[in-house]
Specification:
The complex is a heterodimer of chains A (about 110) and B (about 110).
Chain A lengths: L3 E4 L2 E4 L5 E7 L5 E8 L3 E10 L2 E4 L7 E2 L9 E3 L8 E8 L7 E2 L3 E5 L1
Parallel strand pairs in A: 2-11
Antiparallel strand pairs in A: 1-3, 3-8, 4-5, 4-9, 5-6, 7-8, 9-10, 9-11
Chain B lengths: L3 E3 L4 E4 L4 E7 L7 E6 L6 E6 L3 E5 L2 E6 L4 E6 L8 E9 L2 E7 L3 E6 L1
Parallel strand pairs in B: 2-11
Antiparallel strand pairs in B: 1-3, 3-8, 4-5, 4-9, 6-7, 7-8, 9-10, 9-11
The chains are: A mainly beta (about 110), B mainly beta (about 110).
Chain lengths: ~110, ~110
């Protein structure tokens, strides 16, 4: 089954404790992207990747890191999480930047 | 900052009626336009993509694009209770193809 898999689905952590949210897709998509969704603000793009080893900032990259060492994986790293990063995170992938996105099931992160 | 704007709603629609959703965008260079549906607590799923001016129909859904006026709309015909969801408009940035801007979404409530 074609899918984008995010893990974990739920995560509660404390301020400053490094964490990684994994994202993997099995559709051989070149384009991958991370979004956060907050009430009233919609989906905001954090980082995106056009291909392996090619990443770029979205609109809200501060406090996040990404890497794209393999085509299928695009992990999101929070090196020192803060409470304002409490949000619902979605990973998505597509064949290209102008193609429709396939979304993962989301990761609900709470930073206390 | 490139902007994508939608009425937040809720848009209340009687069952069987037409729901009309509008989206305006600020980037004249945008080339790709998408409508996603998101049920509460779920990830967004693609309803329609549109790339050229005019209408595009898919079942009960019709997307309309007018690049000169910088708006894209979605019509839902014969609305069903299962159409009750938040509809997200997404627009790519013309000079940075990897960047995708989402509107905050319009909540649609179909009443029996």
């Amino acid at each position: 089954e074609a899918q984008v898999t995010q893990n974990p689905r739920y995560l509660i952590t404390v301020t400053g404790k490094k964490l990684t949210v994994t994202c993997s897709q099995n559709m051989n998509h070149e384009y991958m992207s991370w979004y956060r969704q907050d009430p009233g603000l919609g989906l905001r793009q954090i980082y995106y990747s056009m291909n392996v080893e090619v990443t770029d900032k979205g609109d809200v990259p501060e406090g996040y890191k990404v890497s794209r060492k393999e085509k299928r994986n695009f992990p999101l790293i929070l090196e020192s999480p803060s409470p304002n990063q409490t949000s619902l995170y979605f990973c998505a992938s597509s064949f290209g930047a102008n193609s429709p996105l396939h979304f993962g099931n989301g990761t609900r992160l709470t930073v206390t | 900052q490139k902007e994508v704007e939608q009425n937040s709603g809720p848009l209340s629609v009687p069952e069987g009626a037409i729901a009309s959703l509008n989206c305006t965008y600020s980037d004249r260079g945008s080339q790709s336009f998408f409508w996603y549906r998101q049920y509460s607590g779920k990830s967004p799923e693609l309803i329609m993509s549109i790339y050229s001016n005019g209408d595009k129909e898919d079942g009960r859904f019709t997307a309309q694009l007018n690049k000169a006026s910088q708006y894209v709309s979605l019509l839902i015909r014969d609305s069903q209770p299962s159409d009750s969801a938040t509809y997200l408009c997404a627009v790519n940035e013309g000079d940075s193809w990897g960047k995708l801007q989402f509107g905050a979404g319009t909540q649609v409530v179909v009443t029996p």
